[in-house]
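[scheduler] slot 2 assigned
[scheduler] job type: sequence-to-structure, two independent chains
[scheduler] chain ordering preserved from manifest
[runner] begin chain α
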Amino acid sequence: MYTGLGLTVLAAAVPYADRSATHLMADHIRSGYPGYDQARIDTAVDAYVVLLSVVGVLGVVCWLGAAWAVRAGKRWARPASAVMLVFGIGVGLAELLTKDTSGATGLPPALGWVGMAPCLAGLWAVVLLWRRPQSA
């Protein structure tokens, strides 16, 4: 679970690194909307960074809650973790596949795939949770 937490923090930090260094998001928006000036592109990038930050914070809360529930031996930890996994996969796929009005995906594929990384850890965590005997 802590691997998933770390991947979630990393996925939430990547948009900030992109905004200051690689500019994948800005280039992606610029190619989809060639008529946008730099100020409008910057506004769109800022909106995506805020959105991805909110998703990241919610993910961190879910990972911490799931880890606590498992460690405390709560009976609802398994089903709650499975439900969080389904929601996480849904959000990750939405980030990866949702198209905007330009016809391209809203996020560049590289950033979309970064958002899917915590889902792999979540899948593994849920499999391990359901394979071990449930504590009383």
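[runner] end chain α
[runner] begin chain β
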Amino acid sequence: MEINDITEKILGCAFKVHSALGPGLLESAYEECLNYELTQANLMVEKQKALPLVYHEVKLDAGYRIDFLIEQQVVIEIKSVEALNEIHLAQVLTYLKLSKCKVGLLINFNVKSLKHGIRRVINDIV
């Protein structure tokens, strides 16, 4: 499946969740509901995927976890914050680098209109 097709399906699922729940809930509630929708959309979903850090050929268990890895190609990071900021973007870029994925979606559900809470992130160094 092409990355654009995958991200289109993911965003469709995210819009369903946001339409049903609206803003104001905890991140964990959106995560569980999005997991349900992604699974219903027949996407291969890895939730809370452990992400090791390799430093000078030493694999460190640093406790990093990707909210979702979809089809082994797209990283999703879920937020429920007042506003996305640069540290959230840096987090997704780090996850993309460590997972060797090219595309990530940073989704903030704590917005009135979800289209204002989505950032597509590209890792040019794959």
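[runner] end chain β
[qc] chain β: The first strand starts at residue 45 and ends at 55.
[scheduler] slot 2 released
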